Amino acid sequence: MKVAIVDDQHLVRDAFARVVRAQDDMELVGLGATGRDAVDIARDQAPDVLVMDIRMPVLDGIAATREILGADFGGATRPPRILIVTTFNLDEYVFNALRAGASGFLLKDATPGQLVDAIRTIARGDALVDPAVTRALIGAYVDRRRARTESVDLAETLTPREREVLQLLAHGMSNLEIARALVVTRETAKTYISRILLKLGVRDRVQAVVYAYRSGIADE
User: Fold this and answer.
1) 87, 81, 133, 136: which is closest to 107 by C-alpha?
2) From 3's CA, which of 16, 34, 73, 190 has a CA 20 to 30 Å away?
3) Could you tell me which of 158, 168, 169 has the C-alpha nearest to residue 200?
4) Which structural domain range is residue 150 located in?
């Protein structure tokens, strides 16, 4: 998989780059220090995963995420999946980045193994939100008012079991944990999640979790 790293802190950027270069299944295709670099790398190098900081000069990670995911990449090429890296005390920035379309986030004190696992998780189409901080992160910054009419209508298309699965997603559970909680196979849990994403019109698990909090389903 092709990976790019954008962070204005040289030590962080270089450390992440060394980790990526050491993996047999990863190719480092770009390094940058600003949000504008991230946009240029996404366009020119077409990485599968873009690991990006939030607070950067020229263009911050949130604005860069919006610009990258709103770009027309043409043909069969899809925009990269974006993995946000940040410090724990930047929760509001992380939430805004997730709302902008990032596929997940990772704390900067993560181990090399956690970084590699996160990149692979994002690359295969899943989304990554640390279960330990999911509820605090989204619950603290999401608008708790009931969703707009179209959101309510979308929620009503979910079956009772799908709503239950969405609640478990909002609590940070993995596919395996959801399967165990519902006493179903992992494949069945994955099927439920796919149906939920389709019905809600969201592109990944993170966006589904945000929806769950915005609509109030997470707190039912």
Assistant:
1) 87
2) 190
3) 158
4) 145-219
**Verdict on whether the full-model pTM lies above 0.70:** no
Q: Cβ(101)–Cβ(65) under 8 Å?
A: yes
- CATH number of the domain at 114, please: 3.40.50.2300
Helix (H) or strand (E) holding 155: helix 149-156
Instruction: Classify the phi-psi angles of 219: left when phi > 0, otherwise alpha if psi is within -120 to 50, otherwise beta.
Output: alpha
User: Average pLDDT, stretch 186-196?
Assistant: 91
Q: Which residues contact 1 (CB under 8 A, 6 or more apart)?
A: 25, 26, 27, 48, 49, 119, 120, 123
How large is the average pLDDT for residues 59-83? 79
Tell me whether residue 154 is in a domain: yes
Q: Which residues pair with 3 in a beta bridge?
A: 28, 49
How many domains would you assign to the chain? Answer: 2
